[in-house]
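SEVERITY: medium
COMPONENT: batch folding queue
REPORTER: lab tech (J.R.)

DESCRIPTION
The queue accepted two submissions in a row. Attaching both inputs and their returned structure tokens so the on-call engineer can compare them side by side.

ATTACHMENT 1
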Amino acid sequence: MGCLRRASVDMLVAMTESQGPMADRPTASTASAAAVPEPAWAQEIIDDLTRLVAVPSIGAQAEHADDLARSASLVAELLSQAGCPEVQVLDDCSAPAVLGRYPAPPGAPTVCLYAHHDVQPVDLADWRTPPFQLTRVGERLYGRGAADDKGGLAAHLACLRRLGPNPPVGLTVFIEGEEEVGSPHVDQFLARYREQLRADVYVIADADNWDVGYPALTTSLRGVCLALVEVATLDHAVHSGQFGGVLPDALTTLCHLLASLHAPDGSVAVAGLEARTSFAVDYPDDRFRTEAGLLPGVAYLGQGSLADRLWAGPAITVIALDAPSLEQASNTLLPRARALVSLRVPPGLKADQALAQLTDHLQTHAPWGAQVQVTPAAAGDPAQIAVDGPFAQTALAAWGEAFGQTPALIGQGGSIPLVNQLSSVYPEASLIVSAVGDPDSRMHGANESVHFGDLIRSVEAEVAFIRRLGDAAQG
């Protein structure tokens, strides 16, 4: 699941009312984490994921461009080995993507299986295992991309092998190469390859399940955008002893400005940024604290239910600060300072509108008359995904069969830029946002992992879904 992120700020790129009543939701005590028997083909998943994780396909860092290309070539190789008859690496209008296709039998629908092969950067100091070496610890497989989203890709590959060379429906496999930087070229890609990507239903394996052993289908995604804010107070640096106490330095001024983005209770203080939807979901407090790793005594931000704050409300985070390091610090009043601010846009609000409201707040709340310049990035809208119609009902049945319980219908606080574009380009198609990860997968963070049993279940769910569609097409 993606976000807008770049190695340097000058590379910034882009990344409706509630769905109605939610399905009954489990609590932590009802989620099943029973061990899953490993079928004979399970080792193939580990073999594929081992090779995929070994390639540091970090899309946000230019020095990994060759690795991204190498990763795409590996994906194409694995698709061919899985029996896909038509495989292409496409890099003419985006980062390297891979497209695989199986023709549809007469009268059968076409299913598009989506994942992405680019991953987030790593901080080696925080990892307990090598991030680019798949490591099994108990039931979990650790490595960058193990859950987001090379795990989803590995599930698709295993599904193709289970179905064999003649699947009962048409299949398209779309493996994107720039999801983690906001899919900046997805519009051009869909325009160029519109017919090759056309399908009746899209299975987007890039979200989280409700819990280990408890599947979920996602009904709502927040949008995301970035703003680079620069504060200037002086035309050159000066001695802090000679001028301190009279002149405002830019870094302290920036800290005051950033603090104005939140009210004392931690809720977002930008006018117009508020929840427009609500989720009738009980997210147990003790479970959430454990999953998040919240330290004792640290309070939550904002007000309202946990589900509404996570999935329906806005979130503002300072994700980078351009200031001297401790090693380079001196007793100096800095003339300029910069920060990168991330905004998660609540469903029901357009990202451009939200970004304009954030920009206006930053420009009008500068303390001490400081000069403020805000450089907005293009923004990605939130999305709502209807779980209705025959494809969705078939998915609920298939995932329920594989996991032994009906999927929960949940929101996600993260963003998948492709979802809105697919809905726009193919308005008659259905979207199924599924998952291989769980709340402890730590996507984007250190020690990312996927539960192997859930990975196996996810493969079985996809196979059951496609076979059910094939059976329906044959009457």
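ATTACHMENT 2
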Amino acid sequence: MSKAFFLLLAALPLLAQAVSFTNQIKPVLAKQCSGCHQPQSMQSGLSVTTFEALKKGGTKGPGFVAGKPDESLLVGYLTGAKSPRMPFGGKPLPEEDIELFRAWIREGAKDDSAGAGAASAHVPKVPSQPIAYKSAPLVTAFAFSPDGKMLAVSGYHEILLNTVEGKLIARLPGKSMRIHGLAFTPDGKTLAAVGGDPARSGEAQIWDVETRKQRASIVASADTFFGGALSPDGKLLVAGGGADKSIRLIDVEAGKEVRKIDHHEDWVFQGVFGVDGKRLVTVGRDRAAKLTDVSTGRFVENVNLLKDSLMAIVRHPKRDWVAIGGAERIPYLYRLDRPRAMRIADDSTLIRKFDRQDGPITALALSPDGGKLAVGAEAGDVRIFNAETGDLIARCSGHQGGIFALQFSPDGANLVTGGFDGHLRFYDMSGKMVRDFVAAPVELSRGN
């Protein structure tokens, strides 16, 4: 029997049902083709990131002819019938993957993508009564005030202001069910937050710290916001739009969105501004650390070599260097400025990579002097590395679950962690825990 017969037999289970563009075709395109064929880098005028873009094709013509795989450019370039064979410079796709493309086109090349949909009709509300906590709520975000005397901590439908010793100062109720990012302006007078209600709405909040009054609530998107970093001058807030794949810039003083950027091809989780505030780097599930010009919203380039989805980013306090991490479990340190002209599969911006972690990386922090990098993950200890050499300095243990937020104290003496178990833990630079408290006012049941 011929090799082709056995390949066909292997493909039969996949072809028993109609081939799905969303579940079978698009993931292959995203992994193998989107690096050179995305809206920000359309080689031959082609983008493969959406059904509409693939169908439209590029300078060579439409991407496919529904019902006619042998007349479709997509199949021709994947098989090598047309030159150059794709992926360009990479290994040809396995025959079973190519057969999926043939079958999808033969079946009519149908688009089963979920529609963009209308904006959410959900109108979030501020709770009428303070939340009564029966257990510690998970900590998804926290931030030190610039003087290091106060912590703003995420709660449920609120922000909790605590002293660094753990005394509750104030409760700031808001519309967002979850807060995913918190940041004080450099003068400490304003607190910015981002969050929302999952699958319903995203919100940015601007608070006056002295009066404890909310100055602005910006509700947008049909899903929660992530990120929440401020520009160095405290004038702009960046929010990752989660499921709508957007980046939103918010004017802190005016309390309004001033720019929406759509460079990413999947969820956006975090972003940081460059040292001078003129550039922005954002990361998400599309594997890219995307560099953007703040004044125009123009995409500049991907800082990193694409490997796996990214969930965390932090900038060096004095240099245009960023540490990134995500599903690959390996933290990387990159510079924003490329030392030479970009080439295919170019990783010339890489400064160094660090040890592999015990789980996907969810949080990163750099010390005030930039000398130490802290890495938190879904599992295992939080580790502190020498940012200059990559050497491990300390391990911080005692967590009961994943880590969602990390930050060094402004004086650099302590690393603070927060995550699934709802505790804020303070560690010295040897990895010794020196303080542990829950920011939320938990009501103990009788008998405890």
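NOTES FROM REPORTER
Confidence is low (pLDDT under 50) at residues 1-15, 115-121.
No errors were logged for either attachment.
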